[in-house]
Amino acid sequence: MKLKLNAISKSFGPVKANSNINLTVDNGEILGLLGENGAGKTTLMNILTGLYKPDSGTILIDNQLKEFQNPREANKSGVGMVHQHFMLVPVFSVTENIILGTEPTTRFNKIDLKTATDKVVKISSEYKLDVDPNALIEKLPVGIQQRVEIIKILLRNAEILIFDEPTAVLTPQEVTEFFEIIKSLKKTGKAIIFITHKLHEVLEICDRINVLRRGKIVGEAFPTKTNNKKLAELMVGRTVKLRTSRRKMEKGKELLKVNNLSILSDKKEPILTNIDLVLHQNEILGIAGVQGNGQTEFIEALTGLRKASTGKIVYFGKECINITPRKIHALGIRHIPEDRQKQGLIGDFSLIENIILNTYYEKDFSNNLKLNWLNAKKEARRIINQYDVRTNSEDISANKLSGGNQQKLLIGREMSRSINLLIASQPTRGVDVGSIEYIHSQIIKARNKGIGVILNSTELEEIIALSDRIIVFYEGKIIAEFPSNSDPKIIGLAMAGVK
Amino acid sequence: MSHYFSNRETFKEIILIPVIATFLAISLGLLLLIFSGSSSEIALKALIALFLGSFGSLSAISETFTAATPLILAALGIAIGFRAGLFNIGAEGQIILGGMAAVIIGFSFHLPFVFHIIFVLLAGALFGAFYAFISGWLKAVTGAHEVITTIMLNLIAYRLLDFFLRISWIQKEGRNDPISKSILETAELPRIFYVLDPNLRVHTGFLIAIIAVLVVYWLIFHTTIGYEFRAVGKNLEASRYGGINPALTIIIAMSSAGLLAGLAGASQIAGILGRATPGFSAGIGFDAIAVALLGRAHPIGVLFAGILFGALIAGGREMQVSADVSLDLITVIQALIIIFIAAPILIQKLFPWIFK
Amino acid sequence: MNNHTTNKMQDVKTKKSTIIGLCLIFLGCMIYLFFGLGVEGQATFRLSRPTDPFALPNLILPAHSFIGASALLIAFFGGRIIIKAPKKYTIFIALSFFLAIAAFLVWATAGKSFSLTGMLQATLVRAVPIALAAMAGIMCERVAVINIGIEGMLLAGAFAGAVFGSIFGNLIGLILAILVGGFFGFILAALVVTFRVDQIIAGVAINIFVLGITSFLTSHLLKSNPELNDAPIFKSIKIPFFSEIPVLGPVLFKQNIFVYFAIFIVIVSTFYLFKTAYGLRARAVGEHPKAAETLGISVIKTRFYHVIMGGMIAGFGGAWFTLGSVGRFDEGMTGGRGFIGLAAMIFGRWHPIGALFAALIFGFADSLQQKLAILRTPIPSEFLAMAPYLVTIIVVAGIVGNAKPPQAIGQAYVKEN
After folding, report:
1. Same domain? C101 vs C129
2. Which candidate in A89, A164, A271 is best for mutational testing of the C interface (most C CBs within 10 A)?
3. Confidence (pTM)
4. What was the pLDDT predicted at C1?
5. What pLDDT score was predicted for residue C9?
């Protein structure tokens, strides 16, 4: 057995992130580690890579007991990890990133760049990981950045390779390429741990699957003997609906029309070019695409957070380009931002203070100057009850809530005032399955009531499950449009830029 | 830095740490005194003087409140800045500008008693606000860090003051050194206990400071403007999402900070000094930073911290007179207080048994 | 890109260049109005002393025509920018500023004589503490620690240099000044890295602390023992042959060790940061500390080392004020140079060589006020003294939007375990 974890436990304060975890991986094996957000997958891997120390339990590699004080020691024992958020310095070159910490040097500690580049080229050709060693990381697409990460751990002679949610940022095509890469790594005898919450991926690529729930291993499965549904139940701990039911509806009158919209970046480079689209009542318009293809900027332009350089945005027949977020809010347009901690909520503010974030100036909560805390408190209580936000008090700060509850609070805030149009960006990112179901049902309910919804998500499954119509963003353009229930494979191709 | 100032603080944060920080800083200051060659008797004498000079008598208390007045006003401004995520180091310059305006209005207009005072204070507040506005505007429009611009504006303010004090219609007649004319009697803030004892220097500026505490409290926690300040300070992105204009909010917050600092300068001129000299700001703007931090950017906290620092200054003067210890020791103690307050983990490590 | 967008972009560009062009034309007019009108005589710039082995003749400029020509040229640049709307006009702006300053100098010198070499020499000397403060800032900010406390570290170095220099002689005084600077670097690192104090608050606290303690010790110790505040200063060292070169010789090769070392530090730190493995690791810590940590680089140690190193450089820069110029310490004698150094660092885009050039600009502004006082211009001396501060504000406001600091700047690194 290459790697054996014995009864690993780890707590952060009162929270048991891992309890009594046993796990093995062999050479030439791909182990899938399946679990929801917050199930303890990342904590476990941080223990294995020496970032955290376990409270109890042991790590055996090649039957030898290991205690890692820091990541360097884990590296030396052949453990390498590709993190979900890449550990790459954007302003460094590929080579600099790869050799960082193990730089070959000449006199005066000067980096021997030639030797370094040669090393990188050697590994990249050996494992067929094509990459330009002199390119700057920030100029590379994420798929290539991932290769850099893999070369980085291979250079350190990693025998146990851990991939944390490696497909989250990739296009379906890049995912296919990535699967080829790990299959070839498997052939060279590496032990591989593949962490994900996507069921079909573990079924496709893994030899064996361990399911993690609330810090415990709750089951083991083999792809040949299990299926989506069984795995999902194991992962969540109860039966789940994999598909949200959605009845067909006739679309109503036109709510939003975007005409020839273009946006330039601060450096005057085009981010979005010539976007045209229409949204109707009773319609969910899904925006699919790999992160960073202009969706974020498009949503920001729609909600008044970013200036468009040319084009028209017409809400309810009224031209509304480059007006303030406040005026857009006044039209009954509600925005669930993609990053709730960065944009949607103020972590240090109480739930009450957060409830009035975009309405504090309205009559209900203030008379021009003086805030009406009493009304704010009532409103907060109402939303907490109605939207099932689990909390002891409306007085605690928002960052004390779990991701799912934060999102429910946010959705409650946006949906509970008069609403004509909903712009939801990554509404279920980092949220537990229970909350996902709830949020999806709320979005569909809104649509059934006659609201138009723009749904921006990088999760293609979510887009397909909810949308009445799907458009795909690629390099700042709308590259294709699909009706609902289209084949994910074809949409995936469009996401990769293939028309 | 806004994570230092939440809305819900524990007893430990509000009371325990500031008290320990103050005692620790005073003890270290006295140790410094001994290390620099003074005998331990002198150190003890200094300590006693520190207490007697601040709270030992009615006149000592009056001195404490007198010294606290400009500190509270300026620190309230800095606290507003902190709440909006701004670090205003420019209170010193704003005090100078406010004080200058107050002096000029104070000696050049002949107005009836109350009106003259109001005019003087208003002029001081407006000039302080204008001076801070420059930094706020630069920050909002160009992103220039307010710490650097306010420091530069402080240095410019010192030179401006030097220049103004040599202009013929400002300089006192018959003097060659830089000193301004004295303000008229109608422009002076009356002493509170004049009837009791005309020598008690505490003046109506102290009452203005207390009113300012209440107004700022209301502003920060009960108005839409205060909500905007705090939202911008805690999370600028989210405030934009919430329909707040962060650039405008930053400018308003910075200008209000300058307004209060300018008021501090004017109250100093109209309350005790009566005229401007090159060093009239006396580092109040810097002490006020410590006061705002010690008071955790909470108006009530600032009030008490201001009184404490007023006591340190009043006591420090007594210390200077009776134990011949330089007033700079107080500056050292203040810096130590800032360090201890800003590093609560340090205090908890030093005194683990208190925090069990 | 479609035509629509291209046109729009063109519009934005033309608008901006029109504004800049108009500003330059206005500047040209102002220069002629204020400096050109009514100026008579010649401005004599001395390039070398008559005693120098290779004496150069004086540079004599007819004031009125020179100023007129400069003003015209600036206006011409402005017009050119408006009409042609070129892609890059930074060079024209720089040239215009150069001409404007030259015109100002000629105006101030008209009918008198002025040592240009002396001015350039003073520029370099005055740039030294600013450049060193900027180097200290770069060392800290490259590992993502903001060091507002540089001013205090300069002051501490100046004080230590004066006192220890008086006791032990200037060399040991200098070494101890460096160590005192390093000590405050350690304190800053301990506060911000270990105790995760807000970096700006910690820096401000250090400034106030050092200002207080040096003033306290000055009044308690130095006033009664003046022999403790009378350090021997470092004399300038002539480098044989090179120092004889006209203009360049006295400016570059007849200076004290502070100037030579400052240049040396700039070169070494450039090599260190951008060519060595340790430099690469330091920058990685500043840009993406977590990435560095996963590769076994200790973020905490790296930050400690570099902040201490920054403190030592600042301590050295502080010693310049006492051991490198006047030999005695006065309260608050650093006069905001630490903060100006931070502006130079930003202006130089966190690169040692860029910061050196920025420091030279500030040094020029600094020496200008000193030298112009001698010429007795009608401008009040207080306003001349403001020049470096105003330049700092302009630089910070004008540049900061475009300059990119290390990514992780200002954030405490929390090592989880």
Report:
1. no
2. A89
3. 0.85
4. 35
5. 44
DSSP C146: -
What pLDDT is stored for residue C400 in this prediction?
A: 53
* C-alpha span between A425 and A459 (Å, rounded): 11
Judge whether B223 is closer than 8 Å to chain A, CB to CB. yes
- Which candidate from B1, B148, B332 shows the least CB-CB separation from C209? B332
Nearest residue in chain A measured CA to CA from C408: A89
User: Would you say residue B135 has pLDDT above 90?
Assistant: yes
Same domain for A387 and A307: yes
Per-chain mean pLDDT for chain A: 87
Averaged confidence pLDDT in chain B? 89
Which chain A residues have a beta carbon less than 8 Å from that of B8? 350, 395, 397
Inter-chain touch B241–A371, beta carbons under 8 Å: no
Looking at the structure, tell me whether residues C30 and C150 fall in a common domain: no
Whether residue C187 lies inside any domain: the answer is yes
Confidence of residue C401 (pLDDT cuts 50, 70, 90): low
Q: Are residues C99 and C134 in the same domain?
A: no
Contact B242 A358 (CB under 8 A): yes
> Is B163 part of the contact surface with chain C (CB cutoff 8 Å)?
yes
Contact A346 B234 (CB under 8 A): yes
pLDDT over threshold 70, residue B11: no
Q: Report yes or no on A246 lying in a domain.
A: no
Same-domain status, C339 and C389: yes
Q: Which of A53, A83, A87 to probe by mutation at the C interface, max C CB count within 10 Å?
A: A87
The parent domain of residue C262 ranges over 117-402
B235 touches chain A (CB under 8 A): yes
Residues A91 and A125 in one domain: yes
Q: Which of A348, A361, A392 to mutate to test the interface with B (most CBs of B within 10 A)?
A: A348
**How many domains does one find in chain A?**
2
Query: Token digits for C20?
Result: 């800049």
Instruction: Kindly state whether residue A243 falls inside one of the protein's structural domains.
Output: no
What's the DSSP call for residue B276?
-
- Is there a contact between A111 and C276 if contact means CB atoms under 8 Å apart? yes
| Residue the block writes with tokens 């211009």 | C377
The CATH number given to whatever domain includes residue A148 is: 3.40.50.300
Among C5, C292, C416, the residue with its CB nearest the CB of A273 is C5
CA proximity to A443, closest of A301, A282, A291, A326: A282
Structurally, how many domains does chain C consist of?
Answer: 2
Chains that touch C (3 or more CB pairs under 8 A): A, B
- Cα–Cα dist B245/B229, whole Å: 10
**Roughly what angle, to the nearest 10 degrees, separates helices A433-448 and A228-236?**
110
Range of the domain at A209: 3-236
- Region B166-181: what's the mean pLDDT? 88
**Tens of pLDDT, residues C168-194:** 988 999 999 999 999 999 999 999 998
Chain B within 8 Å of A371 (Cβ-Cβ)?
A: yes
User: Cβ contacts (< 8 Å) between C342 and chain B: which residues?
Assistant: 148
Chain C interface includes A89 (CB < 8 A) = yes
* Cα gap B54→B309, rounded to integer Å: 10
A467 CB within 8 Å of a chain C CB: no
